Amino acid sequence: MLKEFKQNKMFYIVITFIAICLFTASYALSLSFINKGTHGDNSDESVLAETKETSFIKENGVIITKDTKLEFLVRYANCLDYIKADNKIDESIKIEKEKLIGLNESQLEEIFKKFGYKLQQFTKNDAILIKEVAGYNYSPDSYFIGIKDNNMVIYKKEKDESIRVVESKIINPKREDNSNITLKDIEDKGNLLKSLYYGDKDYQFSNIQDAVEYGQSLCST
After folding, report:
1. Which residues, at least 6 apart from 129, have a Cβ–Cβ distance to it below 8 Å?
2. Which residue, 88, 105, 110, 184, has fewest beta-carbon neighbours within 10 Å?
3. What are the b/e assignments for 77-91, b being 16+ CB within 10 Å?
4. Which residues span the domain enclosing 165?
């Protein structure tokens, strides 16, 4: 028996080695599946979290839609109002809204900055763009004809460059009811309305009375 074992000693060593290798490989493979199962769940959660984060960004990324209200305003230095821009005020405003749908804030601003507009407000409900226009530079301590709250008025330009209304009622000489001169009395007279917003050397005076009389003459012609 002992003699037989010695003769087959190498055979038993090889068998034992193979058995150990098979056990080790089997254990390693099982451990690999266990680890894969554990870390696989975490990976799924991580991917899900990233997906939710991406979805959240998309849901909150504001873009222009068919329901977004676009508003263009012009602020003249010689007027205290923000003027709604139209073809009478700004000829560059010829908008095909359909072509703007899908644009985000930076894209919209990039397009209209070429026309002098800056984006003041951008939400899913509305987009407000404003253009600042310096206009004619009236002399300090002078009076000039302008527009405020849809009426022709007389402004005074102070020495500190600020302006204020000093006469808000300019009677329309063509009416018997002594009503004020309004935008409706001006807007059909060529470029008069735009020139009153922008300013002109002919609208500047050294006293209120001369400014009022000239304003009335503009409306009566």
Report:
1. 70, 71, 72, 73, 108, 109, 112, 117, 118, 119, 120
2. 184
3. bbbbeebebeeebbe
4. 142-220
Tokens representing 184?
């409706």
Verdict on whether the full-model pTM lies above 0.70: no
**3-class state of residue 53 by DSSP:** helix
- Assess whether pLDDT exceeds 70 at residue 5: no
Query: Residues 88, 115: one domain?
Result: yes
- Written as six digits, the tokens of 88 are 């009478």
Asked if 159 and 141 touch (Cβ cutoff 8 Å), the reply is yes
The tally of domains found in the chain comes to 2
- Give the phi and the psi of residue 150 in degrees, each rounded to 5: 70, 15
> What number is the average pLDDT over the span 190-211?
95
Nearest one of 119, 111, 76 to 95, comparing CA atoms: 111
Judgement on whether residues 147 and 216 belong to the same structural domain of the protein: yes
The amino acid present at 35, given as its one-letter code, is N
In 3D space, the residue among 96, 99, 104 whose CA is nearest the CA of residue 127 turns out to be 104
Q: Residues 47-72: pLDDT tens digits? A: 333 333 333 333 348 899 999 999 99
Q: Are residues 150 and 216 in the same domain?
A: yes
Same domain, 153 and 215: yes
Which amino acid is residue 42, in one-letter code?
A: N
